[in-house]
């Protein structure tokens, strides 16, 4: 799809204007910051070596990792090589960084912080016999780990290749300037390509033309169910198919999983049928426009029947766009996910049915844009309520009251991250709530704890 710059700019301007209409009034008065690119002065420093990274996982796991690795390169005074993306995992997407992100903007917008190059100098090429150190940083590491254990290695090896990058930087305890750099990379430097942006804005425009809409991240794809072991609502044949898929991937650790136990603990995504029930109880009605921001739903239209019956205006991207529009993106799951990311960020309400990487990054992005409404479903509570209602113990009216009471403070309002120092995997994720990046001054804890949106802004000096 050919993209004219004037047409893209018009779409972007129209989208940004529409987006402002849904932000709090005081939010529109906040100063714009980080107008990056032309005019940004190159930071001058002596590089301690070259950091090369291969990101693993889906689009949003890789996105967070890129933010982390740029930050690591910055505080170790390294030269950062444009990241390589995962091509070997379940998704088998062959996209390179420049197929998804605007690489020139990425390099230029960060040049006042870190030197970024497209590829290593030839003298460090394997063809010339050079062998870099290949390693996996320890998960959830502090800045001290990188300073004390990683930085000294560059003196010997000059080039280090991190071949795993997921969750390799701590959520908490980092200096404020590094936390804010993570946000700058995420919100400003990682801009999608003009082709992705143009189609994303077109999707948003088509949806907004019909009125407000909900972006539903219905995490009910085959891989999600197989690897989580969640099969509630599936037939026996489907449950067996999911189990066989799990066993077919030797790198997946857990093989025997009790689906009902996981569901009771709130560790399974809601089914499409459960999701329809919950959306109805939260006050959404048949006129609600719902955009499904997901891949192929397991069970296809059969499993979407209840959702479509409750919400006839349920839409997928393929229903809005011509086949020609999507042709270049098909078989590229990360590029398709980028479109869903854009629509989810722009939606009036975002509802994820599971707290995976996309859900958490969209949540954080919406906080940054003015705490736009994001309904964070309390799955552990909900599955119990659903079962009580469906077995006749709980009336519909009582069910509605209980569901709404459970979500009073789960709409993406300002809140402090929950910190668990010895269990970082269980604490709140930095990118879901980058609280350090939402305040005008250094007193973020006081501002956010008081739920004071007038003292918040979408950027920082």
TrEMBL record:
Pfam families: O-FucT (PF10250). Pathway: Glycan metabolism. GO terms for molecular function: glycosyltransferase activity. It is a single-pass type II membrane protein. InterPro entries: FucosylTrfase_pln, GDP-Fuc_O-FucTrfase. GO terms for cellular component: chloroplast; membrane. GO terms for biological process: fucose metabolic process. The keyword Magnesium does not apply. Keywords: Carbohydrate metabolism, Fucose metabolism, Glycoprotein, Glycosyltransferase, Membrane, Signal-anchor, Transferase, Transmembrane, Transmembrane helix. It is found in: Membrane. Its main location: membrane. Belongs to the glycosyltransferase GT106 family. This is O-fucosyltransferase family protein. It comes from Chenopodium quinoa (Quinoa).
């Amino acid at each position: 799809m050919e993209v004219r710059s004037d047409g893209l700019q018009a779409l972007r301007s129209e989208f940004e204007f529409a987006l402002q209409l849904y932000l709090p009034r005081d939010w529109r008065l906040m100063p714009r910051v980080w107008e990056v690119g032309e005019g940004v002065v190159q930071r001058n420093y002596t590089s301690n070596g070259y950091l090369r990274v291969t990101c693993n996982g889906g689009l949003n796991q890789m996105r967070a990792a890129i933010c982390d690795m740029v930050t690591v390169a910055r505080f170790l005074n390294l030269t950062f090589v444009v990241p390589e993306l995962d091509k070997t995992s379940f998704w088998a997407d062959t996209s390179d960084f420049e197929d998804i992100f605007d690489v020139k903007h990425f390099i230029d917008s960060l040049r006042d912080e870190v030197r970024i190059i497209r590829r290593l100098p030839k003298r460090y090429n394997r063809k010339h016999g050079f062998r870099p150190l290949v390693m996996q940083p320890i998960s959830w590491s502090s800045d001290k780990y990188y300073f004390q254990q990683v930085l000294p290695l560059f003196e010997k090896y000059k080039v280090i290749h991190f071949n795993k990058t997921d969750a390799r930087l701590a959520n908490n305890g980092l200096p404020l300037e590094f936390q804010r750099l993570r946000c700058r990379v995420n919100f400003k430097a990682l801009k999608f390509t003009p082709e992705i942006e143009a189609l994303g804005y077109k999707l948003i425009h088509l949806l907004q033309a019909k009125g407000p809409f909900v972006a539903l991240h219905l995490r009910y794809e085959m891989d999600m169910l197989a690897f989580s072991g969640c099969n509630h609502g599936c037939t026996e044949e489907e449950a067996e198919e999911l189990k066989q898929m799990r066993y077919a991937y030797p790198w997946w650790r857990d093989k025997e999983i009790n689906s009902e136990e996981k569901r009771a603990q709130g560790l399974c995504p809601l089914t499409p049928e459960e999701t329809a029930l919950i959306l109805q109880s939260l006050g959404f009605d048949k006129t609600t426009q719902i955009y499904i921001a997901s891949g192929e739903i397991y069970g296809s239209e059969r499993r979407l029947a209840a959702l479509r019956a409750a919400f006839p205006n349920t839409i997928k991207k393929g229903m809005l766009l011509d086949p020609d529009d999507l042709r270049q993106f098909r078989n590229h799951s990360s590029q398709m996910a980028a479109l869903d990311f854009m629509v989810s960020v722009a939606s009036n309400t975002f509802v994820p049915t599971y707290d995976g990487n996309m859900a958490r990054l969209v949540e954080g992005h919406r906080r940054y844009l003015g705490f736009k409404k994001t309904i964070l479903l309390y799955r552990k509570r909900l599955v119990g309520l659903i079962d009580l209602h469906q077995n006749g113990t709980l009336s519909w009216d009582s069910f509605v009251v209980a569901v709404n009471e459970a979500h009073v403070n789960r709409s993406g309002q300002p809140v402090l991250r929950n910190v668990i120092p010895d269990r970082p995997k269980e604490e709140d994720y930095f990118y879901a709530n980058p609280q350090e990046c939402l305040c005008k001054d250094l007193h973020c804890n006081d501002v956010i704890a008081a739920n004071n949106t007038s003292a918040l802004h979408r950027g920082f000096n």
